[in-house]
Inverse folding.
């Protein structure tokens, strides 16, 4: 009888301990959620795009994260002189065009990051605007050119390629130009409050790519085990965020594979419709982190976009011995104008522009 009573006493103590632990965990979970402890720890590791947010919006396409907002404009500034940005009804930066393509028009769709978007320059000073202006310089020619600017600040190749693929059938371009430079994790659009904690946390957690893209896990706590816990529990997210070895996914081989897959999918879809896709690397691609040109660094080449890409579908704008502005990620308008001239020459040499 004594042994039975002792066993019951032990069972009661174990049950009470388990109940106390469960209650403590529930209270800790409630506290973590109410104080947004998990969000504060994880959001600090994310990359937010905060330039010209007046003309951007959260995208309904989860692959893009955000996009240019149709029908918006701003006199924007990023710490220097103001510049004017206008986004047309189709979600492209000016100059604008009718969606229905007129006879005799050769249409170029330009996608990429802030260099093609035109960081800190007016609408008429972007690469696509310069392309259109230069190609239409021969006013006697019946051929007219349009260059649609869907460049979006901080876009990675995956986002640019996915945007172009999604717009192929409504824009119906004759050529797609994809600007290369950014690599790694996709950014999120900075909220209008400029407080990253105001971002929709539920949307982040609902994204199946959020954890594998944004974070690395310690070897002894692999993602297949810890990620399901983090998706369900604020307490788990807060706890794992403090574990040594967990942090931002800075190398992101996963991101590179997704970029390549997206570019391959774009090229396959467009070329099947008879639309050439050309990828071009800006000079800053072959510079050190401090912007110093590295002429001896090999051109990234077509293989850097995805293995098997035809070399004729890749253009490297790098040239050695130029002034420092030539190698900037956001060069001044005269350099952007020159980038456009170099692109026109490269495209004509490849036979990829309809003759004037």
């Amino acid at each position: 009888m004594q042994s039975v009573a002792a066993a019951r006493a032990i069972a009661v103590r174990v049950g009470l301990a388990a109940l106390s632990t469960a209650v403590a965990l529930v209270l800790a979970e409630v506290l973590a959620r109410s104080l947004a402890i998990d969000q504060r720890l994880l959001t600090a590791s994310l990359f937010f795009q905060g330039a010209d947010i007046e003309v951007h919006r959260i995208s309904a396409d989860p692959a893009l994260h955000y996009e240019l907002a149709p029908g918006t404009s701003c006199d924007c500034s990023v710490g220097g002189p103001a510049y004017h940005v206008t986004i047309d009804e189709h979600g492209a930066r000016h100059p604008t065009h009718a969606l229905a393509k007129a006879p005799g028009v050769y249409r170029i769709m330009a996608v990429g990051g802030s260099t093609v978007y035109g960081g800190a320059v007016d609408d008429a000073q972007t690469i696509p605007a310069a392309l259109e202006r230069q190609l239409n310089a021969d006013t006697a020619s019946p051929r007219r050119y349009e260059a649609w600017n869907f460049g979006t600040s901080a876009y990675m190749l995956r986002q640019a390629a996915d945007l172009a693929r999604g717009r192929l059938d409504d824009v119906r371009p004759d050529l797609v130009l994809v600007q290369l430079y950014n690599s790694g994790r996709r950014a999120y659009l900075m909220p209008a409050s400029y407080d990253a904690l105001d971002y929709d946390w539920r949307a982040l957690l609902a994204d199946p790519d959020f954890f594998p893209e944004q974070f690395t896990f310690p070897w002894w706590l692999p993602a297949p085990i810890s990620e399901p816990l983090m998706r369900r529990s604020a307490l788990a997210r807060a706890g794992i965020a403090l574990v040594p070895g967990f942090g931002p996914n800075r190398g992101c081989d996963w991101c590179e594979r997704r970029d390549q897959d997206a570019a391959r999918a774009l090229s396959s879809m467009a070329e099947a419709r008879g639309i050439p896709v050309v990828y071009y690397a800006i000079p800053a691609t072959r510079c050190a982190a401090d912007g110093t040109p590295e002429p001896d660094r090999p051109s990234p080449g077509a293989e850097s976009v995805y293995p098997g890409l035809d070399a004729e579908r890749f253009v490297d704008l790098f040239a050695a011995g130029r002034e420092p502005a030539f190698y900037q990620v956001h060069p001044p308008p005269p350099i952007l104008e020159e980038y456009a001239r170099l692109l026109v020459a490269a495209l004509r040499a490849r036979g990829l522009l309809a003759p004037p």
